[in-house]
Amino acid sequence: MENREIKYPIWANEEKTKVKCQFHYENGDRLEASVMDTEAGNPDWAELMETFGVEGIDASHAIHLEERKKAAELHEANKKEKEETEKASILFAAKLEAFEIDEVKASKDRALKSRIRKASSIMEITTFTTLIIMKELDTDEKSKTTK
């Protein structure tokens, strides 16, 4: 055979008549290949069967599937982490924005301000901010009527 090594064989179909693999040549070149079992007798197929056999390709295929599963799980974990980071960033920005409102700045209600700081959703931030604004407006109205 040529100066090459066949690596990473996996089944390309359920009938196990086609294999995807890589040919690694001595000069450093690599070639992705699909090798089929043909009636005429494919020499690459014969080399695959001699080198790996069905059991060896089954084992390589199982490793390939496990690696794909791990990669998919890692991708999902990274996606979830990114979404959580993005949500936290949005919540932080909303909290900062709430504390920029004049009525919230002026409020002496430490409990409601604390609830804004601890809020875990935009709805909570909005609710507690609204409560502070309503209390401040009510306080302003009362102070105007007593003057």
If you had to describe this structure to a student in words, what would you say it looks like?
This protein has 147 residues and is an alpha+beta fold. The protein has 2 domains: 4-76, no CATH class; 101-145, no CATH class. Helix content is 64%, strand content 16%. It has 5 helices and 3 strands. It has helices spanning 43-51, 53-99, 102-106, 110-118, 122-145; strands at residues 4-11, 18-25, 30-36. Strands 1-2-3 form a 3-stranded antiparallel beta sheet. A hairpin with a 4-residue loop joins strand 2 and strand 3. The protein is rod-shaped, with a radius of gyration of 33 Å. The mean pLDDT is 92.
Lay out the secondary structure.
Layout: E1 4-11, E2 18-25, E3 30-36, H1 43-51, H2 53-99, H3 102-106, H4 110-118, H5 122-145
Antiparallel strand pairs: 1-2, 2-3
Helix pairs in contact: 2-5, 4-5
List the defining traits of the structure above.
64% helix, 147 residues
Could you tell me the number of beta strands? 3
CA distance, first residue to last residue: 103 Å
- Major sheet: order of its strands? 1-2-3
Morphology call: rod-shaped
From the alpha-carbon coordinates, what is the Rg to the nearest angstrom? 33 Å
User: Helix share of residues?
Assistant: 55-70%
The SSE order reads EEEHHHHH
Q: How would you state the average pLDDT, rounded?
A: 92
What's the number of helices?
5
Structural class: alpha+beta
Uncertain residue ranges: none
Largest sheet: 3 strands, antiparallel
